[in-house]
Design brief:
The complex is a heterodimer.
Chain A: H1 2-32, H2 37-51, H3 55-72, H4 74-83, H5 85-106, H6 111-140, H7 159-186, H8 190-221, H9 223-230, H10 234-252, H11 256-278, E1 281-283, E2 287-288, H12 289-292, H13 296-324, H14 327-330
Antiparallel strand pairs in A: 1-2
Helix pairs in contact in A: 1-2, 1-3, 1-6, 1-7, 1-11, 1-13, 3-4, 3-13, 5-6, 6-7, 7-8, 7-11, 8-9, 8-10, 9-11, 10-11
Chain B: H1 2-25, H2 34-71, H3 75-109, H4 111-145, H5 151-156, H6 158-180, E1 186-188, E2 191-193, H7 197-201, H8 206-234, H9 240-269, H10 271-274, H11 276-283, E3 294-301, E4 304-311, H12 314-320, H13 341-370, H14 379-386, H15 388-407, E5 410-412, E6 416-417, H16 418-421, H17 428-458, H18 482-486
Antiparallel strand pairs in B: 1-2, 3-4, 5-6
Helix pairs in contact in B: 1-2, 1-15, 1-17, 2-3, 2-6, 2-8, 2-17, 3-4, 3-17, 4-6, 6-8, 8-9, 8-14, 8-15, 9-13, 11-13, 11-15, 13-15
Classes of the chains: A mainly alpha, B mainly alpha.
Amino acid sequence: MLETAVAAALFVGVLAYALFGGADFGSGFYDLTAGGSRKGAELRTLVDHSIGPVWEANHVWLVYVLVTWWTAFPESFASAMSTLILPLLLALLGIVLRGASFAFRKYAASLAQARLFGAVFATSSVVTPFFFGTVAGAIASGRVPAEGRGDLWTSWLNPTSAFGGVIAVGTCAFLAGCFLTADAARGGQERLAEQLRRRTIGVGMVTGGIVLAALVPLELDAPTLADGLETQAAPLVVASAVAGVATLVLLWRRRFGLARLTAVAAVAAVVSGWGVGQYPWLLVDEVTIADAAGADATLQALLVAVGIAAVVVLPALAYLYRLTQTEAWSRPEH
Amino acid sequence: MAPIDVLLSSTAALAADVLAAATSAAADAEPAGLLPARQQMALSLGWHIVLACFGVAFPAIIFTMHLIGLRRGNEHALTLAQRWAKVSAVLFAIGAVSGTVLSFEMGLLWPGLMGTFGDVLGLPFAFEGLAFFLEAIFLGIYLYGWGRMPPKQHLLMVVPMAVTGVVGTYCVIAVNAWMNVPTGFRIVDGEVTDIEPWAVLFNPAAFWQFLHMWLAAYMVAGFAIAAVYAVGMLRGRRDARHRLGFTVAMAFASVSAVLQPFVGHLLGGRLAEWQPAKLAAFELATETESPSPLRLGGVLIDGEVRYALDIPYLGSLIARNSFTEPVIGLDEFPADTHPPVNITHLSFQVMVGIGTLLALVAVVYWVMRWRGRELTDHRWFLRFMATGGVLSIVAMEAGWIATEVGRQPWIVQDVMRTPEAAGDNPGLWWLLGATTVVYTAMTIGAIVVLRSMARRWRAGEADLPSPYAPDPAGSEDSGTTSMGTVR
């Protein structure tokens, strides 16, 4: 029970990172495809403005996940880190390059510098979720052993990981598209909102198709997860499809504010589908949540820390998000 | 800021070299991942820790400047506060990502430590994460709040950052203190049991070690910022803004520099009990002498101390608060538990030497100022202060080298040896190579951007619009500056 509560708290972190950190990464897709410097300036300024105040806070969910994992389930953390060292290091490289070049671009002195930093920012934003997706795929398909090190390459270069990676890139871009479209519309940038709306609908259709198509290869490559998706997580699979279609309809009808909510619901359902689908395994087919848990005293203390975080951090985070949606914060900045 | 970054990479590299020397000396039957892991940790931690100092100390310094601006209606103070906030946006961004690198590395480099003790040392990290969360949230609010919030409310947004800096430092240091003085668990038949996570969070070594690092952070940030304005004054920019920037930064640097020797002394006084071998290495005490001398300089060559200046009694007096109590000599510890002596001793003395020098200079500066003489009118003083940032960083890095190398061969004192914590992964050399390249690039990027910001500010640009197009987007409304809308 105790360990399930901690695992749930851990998964809330995974979910929050996938949604909010994911949306920040996804904005890199639109930045990358915004066109030349003159044509893309308006969109890049919007990206900068939208994720600028929030990206560091959203990034901390990752730190939260790592710390909770190694504290609550230390041995599985050690084996996952050593097995998945390559995709994790590539994701880490992406995180470092994304964060640094985003900050550098904002204060770049010349267009040439801004283009260099911008290219690094956008490219690393797009590829980073892919590697995190492969990590999820590796765990979900039972390729990370309970102890020691699994295969360095096949653990994350396999069908489930490939789909995990592509789905991660797609859902990030989809979320970012919904947020950016709403931000552009709220800021009165009609033309930009239209351009983003069309692209987001395209991204959503492709991503939704891939998510549904992935269910087939999962049957063969990740049977335990597939079984979970067809039973306990089936409602979430349905919910993700419904929310995804609803988002596309809302975008089509230019209800951008509402579309953000349904988009978050759709992606949350996809990610939770993975979590619920592989329950009670922590590392699928290898070790359950109960067996992987560390000392009870630590789990209890960790829940205290999570409780404090819920009381202290969440209101602050809500305040930040609310501020970014106000009229004063929607003005172009200096 | 530029000289700091140059130094930052060179000190990190130095730390890596030093640690390499330390490890190759004691290389027998080590896992393949040990040496690259040590180098990697030295590079990434040595790099991050400088930025962490700014993350901890800069908010309070910015708060002070911002408060002066609002309270006294001081235009220069408001300008400086806003510029410092923009500089902190760049520093905090690379600080956040390089800190994330460290969270990954805990598992990647030290699977033996995390697999065995993850649930023992995890709680402080959890609280550190919580503190970092709040810091990141309020950083976003403060940075983007200029001109968008009522001024007083906006100023208050810095306070949580300063507080979480304290909490975060305490938590991270609590883990390091636990490695020095492990507590909160028992080992029965090779299994870790009876874990008390709260005892780890509040372990007895944590408080003084935290205080030592917290002051160090203020010294690094204070002296580094003061150095920037000292350089400006040396180049003839002696306007009110430069004097104000220098004075506020120097105030923070001075208070912490003057307190630091006392805190360091109290911390060191506990070493005789907790880590006697580390103390012996700090003091280059090869054998027990009563009373122990204070040994200035000196290296151990083939078991003989050479080139040292011994001052009688002072070793006992400083390390043991006594005229007779000796510093236990290294010869009383088994040879396979000796830390690499020379690196530990020399780094320790570099730290103490620079720290003492900076404290003295701080005292002299304020005494002279109180007596009506402004030392910033003298080029020799400005030249010294221009190096103050570099010196404080060297002292801080030397302190970390002394305490970390001084704990060897243990990663957890008397419980786990460092080779047991490392993995068997020779591929980590590739990681070290890649990290060196990326961190070098990141250092260059930060220098280029920060220097260009300073250059544009000097040229009179108030806003720094992002140049996303040949004709910068958003330039049409640059008529109202942020400063204009603040009031």
